[in-house]
Amino acid sequence: MTPFNHIAWTVALLSLVCAGGADAQVSVTSLTEVQRGRVPGEDPDVFSNVFEQFNLNYGQADFQASARFEVYRASVDGRNMTFLSQRSVSWAKGPAYVVGGNFYGILGRGLTARAFELPGVVLESTVFRQRYTNTQDMEGGFASWTDDRFEVKALAGRPVAGDIPPGYPDTISGFDKLTGLGSDRRKDWVLGSEFSVRPVPGLKLGGTVVNVRPQGFEGSYAWSWLAGMDLTPAFEHAGLSSLYGEVYAELANREKFTSDGHGRYLSGNFGIGSVGISVEYKDYDNFDLLANDPPQLVREHTAYLLNRNTHVLQTLNETGFQVEAVFPVADLVTVTGNISWGKNRLSSTVSTVFDERFIGTELGFLPDSHTASVFFDWGRDELEALASHRTGGMLLGTSTENNHTLELNLELQRGKLPFGANPRYWDTYGVLSWQSPIGLGAAIALDRSTNPSETDRGNNETDPVKFLSVNLNARFGPYEALLFVGERRGGTACTSGTCYEVLEFRGAELRLTTRF
Amino acid sequence: MKCIKRISETLLAVMLLAAPVVSKDMAPDFNLRSPEGDRLNLKSMLEHGPILLDFWATWCKPCVKAMPKLQEIYETYKDRGLTVVGVNEDGPRGQSKVKPFLRARKFTFPIALDSDGSVMKRMRATAYPTTVLIDMDGEIVFRHAGFAKGDEKVLIEAIEAVLTGKADQAEGSGTE
């Protein structure tokens, strides 16, 4: 019996078991990706693969049980994989929440611990060439109590080593591959807790502590003190009802490691009426705690060319700040300005700087059937070998009375690398898309680059490289299908501020999402 | 290609098997905090009427497009007992920007912070934005992922059906 048939029979069995339960429900979410094509520069020339993420959920009253199967099949030997990547049982009632198995959770603002996932993101390991879900969950137990005054959390679990695919190494047994018990992905342990109290409305005081136990290394401890205060009631009390504001600070230390470390995060936001500003400061040093995710203080871009250039936080050493202001000008435009700056001290003599300035506007004076936004962004990221860039773009949209929508997205980047005989390059990106009200859509995208890191792979190193693709989408009830045909540029991609590598791909890819 | 054919057949079988399994889609209870620190508990909110949850993030363009429509829905239906909650998925990285973002665009419906994404996972939402309508019995009667112009009409039909006690009607078109 194939693993797929196992899944089918599991669903069938559960349907029979649960049919009698008055309040019991079984639900299914499935994500399937089928690819046929090639990754330039990789063997074999042409390959096919299927990735399936199958989530089974069972709920009864306050209990929930869930399991996630991941299956990968490729036309290349040695890459196939079947894996029970998540399983959990949880109970939630009033202020209490307990989960055993795979869980997501956060202590403070993530300086000392955060387990999470990027929904819908499928990774392809550049080393192992297997596809799997990009999860940063933990496996163990998590409990929390959240009432109006107190918040208590406790966790103990094994974080995932995200660059190791499930089922690695090949030498482990079939049972261990399926369950993940013998896999190299989860070898370390993290234990932690948070206690915070709200003595008066708007004021939060507390702390977190974690014990990090990496396999084969000495364990270490980290703890943080945190305090947050909503200033708006104080402003209102003083008769300044148009003002608002809040401040937050979390100061963490790490001890008993090869050397001590620290993590410091301060933030605040303030505003008058609809004009607002947020200010953040970071100082991280030797602060990789296996399962932590401190705030990055980097703008999260949806513009394609800017998203590729997102700075990746280095928790081993990074200091910096971010300031973002939003101000509507009457009802004409909403302007967003952002300044981000960071410095990485790589050694006692070598350091790199990241800085970025962004300004974007959404035009609000257009009729409801039209939308328009423009942005301009410039900066550098020495750690990512980007000496400088200037990037601009616009998004124009229009819709008909019967809700057909047409959008044009254009972006242009002038960049400079810190090395090479001809370090300057142009990147251009354009998408024309149409979406119908009955759930059908189409888009054509062109990505063109003269970046030497892209062009040096061709026969003529000065020719620009082009990536042309057609995307079709269709939605019907619980089914959604996305078809990509063409060429996709590889490189960095970021979702929700978390970045990962995408391999270049030429061919066709079909993604199906189903939910029952 | 054999492999792909086998998987396609199996998936079809799974979908057919799964369809009759699903009965009521009950929303799991949760506790979240607003940016001001207030606790938002699902079951407590359900005592006041049905709830519309919208999972969104400041960096998500379709989410931002949908939010003016949610504001309209909030203003139209709040007096009829509907609670609209925007569940922010920015996480700790964007938490400081949420309030200025909302104030600048004059969005006034309640916001909850899902800092670790656990509520989004437990609600089985896999895309931004995802809109979930929960009736007073705690059953998810409407679910929609993504936003395109005109989607709000289907949502309003579902809300009207729930508020007038015709939840079953909402389970037709547009319901996942």
What does this structure look like?
- The complex is a heterodimer of chains A (516) and B (176).
- With 516 residues, chain A is mostly beta strands.
- Chain A is built from five helices and 29 strands.
- In chain A, a hairpin with an 8-residue loop joins strand 1 and strand 2.
- Chain A starts with a helix and ends with a strand.
- The model of chain A has no long low-confidence stretch (mean pLDDT 89).
- By secondary structure, chain B is of the alpha/beta class.
- Chain B has a single domain, classed as Glutaredoxin.
- Chain B has helices spanning 2-21, 42-46, 61-77, 95-104, 118-122, 151-163, 167-170; strands at 31-33, 39-41, 51-56, 83-88, 111-113, 130-134, 140-145.
- In chain B, 56% of the residues are buried.
- Chains A and B meet through helix 1, strand 1, strand 2, strand 3 and strand 4 of A and helix 1, helix 4 and helix 5 of B.
- Radius of gyration of chain A, taken over Cα atoms and rounded to an integer in Å: 25 Å
Number of distinct helices of chain B: 7
Structural class of chain B: alpha/beta
Distance between the termini of chain B: 31 Å
In CATH terms, what is the architecture of chain B?
3-Layer(aba) Sandwich
- Rough outline of chain B: globular
Features:
heterodimer, A: 516 residues, three-stranded antiparallel sheet, 5 helices, 60% strand, B: 176 residues, alpha/beta, Glutaredoxin, two-stranded antiparallel ribbon, 7 helices, disordered C terminus
